[in-house]
Structure formats: C-alpha cells, structure tokens
Design goal:
Blueprint lengths: L12 E8 L6 E9 L2 E7 L2 E2 L9 H51 L2
Antiparallel strand pairs: 1-2, 2-3, 3-4
Length: 110
C-alpha cells in the first residue's frame, strides 16, 4: 500500500503554537481550535479573538494549516516506510527459518 497523498487532510482538535510578531518581535502564544477544518476559536496570549478580528491572523492560521498538512504527509510516508520495512523483516525471518530447517541436511552432506 502506498502513502496517502490525496490531500484530504482535515484539521480537528486544538493546536497550540508560538509565533513571533513581525511588527514588535514579541512571541505570542496561539491556540486554535479546529472543527472540520474550520476555526472555532482563536486565543492569542490568553485573549479570545472575536470572529470579526480573526482575519488579522489569517497568515498565522494558514501557516499552521500548512505545517499540520506537511506533518500529516510526513507521518503517512513514515508509516508506509515502516510497513515496507516490516514486510522485508518478515520475509527475512521466513527465509532464516527455512534455512534453519534445512541446516541439519546441509551439515550431514558436508
């Protein structure tokens, strides 16, 4: 099975991050609550941002979405590679067991 690259990643849950404000260079703690990829709540430094003011944070929200999607893709790729490695390990283990079963025959004919 190949990794999921459908791009159908949907954010659900709470994401906490920290960003540096470009204007005043201060770090801000951000909490975004997503439901079905929609921002339900945005909290900046402990202050709930009203929906009417959320557009000021569009770039930050977009970056969080992009980072999460990239992380999701990397996780899918790592899971795929792990499955491949497990398959190779299983094949090697089976080969080892077969060779072990035939080892007495090989020693007796040497």
């Amino acid at each position: 099975m190949s990794p999921d690259t459908s791009g159908n990643y949907m954010l659900n849950g709470t994401i906490r991050t920290q960003v540096t404000d470009k204007k005043d260079r201060k770090k801000k703690d951000i909490k975004i609550i997503f439901s079905n990829d929609t921002v339900q709540e945005l909290v900046v430094d402990g202050n709930v941002i009203p929906p009417s003011d959320m557009d000021e944070y569009d770039a930050t929200i977009d970056r969080v979405r992009s980072d999460m999607e990239q992380s999701h893709e990397e996780l899918n790729k790592a899971e795929y590679e792990l499955q491949q490695a497990r398959g190779e390990l299983d094949r090697a283990r089976a080969e080892f067991e077969r060779s072990r079963e035939h080892a007495p025959e090989l020693i007796g004919t040497a």
